[in-house]
Each structure stands twice: as structure tokens, then as C-alpha cells.
Amino acid sequence: MAATHTDKAFEQDLRNLREKLLAMGAKVETLISQSTRALTDRDSALAEQVVGADREVNRLEVDIDDLCRRILALRQPAASDLRLITTALKIVTDLERIGDLAVNIAERAMDLNQAPPLAPYVDTPKLAELAQQQVKKALDAFVSGDAAKAEDVLKGDDLLDALFLKIFNELLAYMMEDSRNIRRATALMFIAKHLERIGDHALNVAEMVIYMVRGKDVRHPRSRDLE
After folding, report:
1. What is the pLDDT of residues 91-140, one digit of tens each?
2. In terms of Cα–Cα distance, which of 102, 108, 121 is closest to 30?
3. Any idea where the PhoU domain is (predicted)?
4. Is the residue at 225 inside a domain?
5. Which of 26, 5, 7 has the alpha carbon at shortest distance from 95?
6. For the segment 10-40, what is each residue's pLDDT rounded down to a tens digit?
């Protein structure tokens, strides 16, 4: 994806596109981290910041959409350039949804912070870190046009899913042990599910990067055939 163009304006547009996507990616990575910290540190003020910051993510989504459509209209890209821009249009949607999920986590954290902790939050921060890493790796793969990096994201999803299942089963045990735990355990299950969904969005990005680089659709298990 390091191809350059004799048309300098076109080259600058593509550079701007990559930079804006990276900026949006960095923003949602921060929101994942902050929303989880709002839970573990019982910091509702930080949770409110996450909710407010979603406006910036939405603005970046609109900016990137506009830039992609302008490039399509003015430059009429073909082949790998066209795949790059159509991939960017899809990635931006996943990033926006990751931002929404971080907001959902922050809102759950604000609610949970009003009650005593159910248990030490050990695995939830680990799950958040894994999800954040998956997003970062997927975006790195996009920017560098590296399908092998994208494949690492696909392979890493199993680890994230296993940790989510561990947290889910532990929370279920808390609920069965004492009905007074149900409300807090349910809220924590939603948080874990949101983090698992963030991992799924990173997976989507990685699949699109593989399509962008190799022209191969790996969205469905039978078509993956990873090396």
C-alpha cells in the first residue's frame, strides 16, 4: 500500500485519509481505556468525559466519509486505490461503533459506581486491553497495507473470546450464589459483552484489510484459509 502517484494532490488526499483514520482509531482506543478505567477506579467524572468525547468520534466519521466521497468524485480511483477508499468507508463505520460501545461501557460504569463493587475487577481490564490491542493491530495493518498483520488479528480473536467466556461464567456464578448480585453482575456482563463486540469490530477491520491487499474476501470461515 506504499504506492505513490504522479498526481501529488491525489497522493496528499490518500495521505490525509490514512492520517484521519489513524486519528479516529487513536481516539477510540483512548475511549476504550478510559471507559474501563472509569469502572475499575470508580471514576464517574472520567466516564462522563468518555460520553462527551463521542461527539469528536462522530465528527471524525463525517469528515472521513466526506473525504472518501470527494476522492471518489474527483480522482475516480481504480484497482488498489479504489479498494483502499472503499475499505476506509467500511472501517470508519466500525470505528464509530467502537466509540459507541465505549460510551455504553462508561454509562454502565457510572451506574455501577453508585453501588459497592461486586468483586475485584481483574479480568475485565485484561479484556479491555486485548480489545484495544486488536483495534490497534487492525489499524496498523490497514495503514501499512500488511495482510499478515491483519491475519494476526483474526488469530487473536480466540483469546479475547475465551477471556470473555471466563468472565461470563464467573459472573453467572455470582448471580447463582446470591440474587442480590444479579443487577451488578448483569451490568458487568454487558460491559464484558461490549468489549467482546469491540474485538469483533477489530476483526471486521482486519478482514477488510486482507480484502484490500489481496482482493480476497475472508469474512466467512470457509473462505479464510489463512496461511
Report:
1. 999 999 999 999 999 999 999 999 999 888 889 999 999 999 999 999 99
2. 102
3. 22-108, 126-209
4. no
5. 26
6. 889 999 999 999 999 999 999 999 999 999 9
Residue 183 lies in a domain: yes
What nine digits make up the cell of 33? 481505556
Cell of 26: 487513536
pTM across the whole model: 0.90
**CATH of residue 184:** 1.20.58.220
CA distance 84 to 17: 10
88 found inside a domain: yes
Q: What cell was used for 80?
A: 488498489
In a domain, 224, yes or no: no
Say how far apart CA 184 and CA 160 lie, in whole Å. 22
Give the domain extent around 92.
Answer: 11-219
Residue at grid coordinates 500488511: 146
Residue of 58, 63, 80, 90 whose CA lies nearest to 10: 80
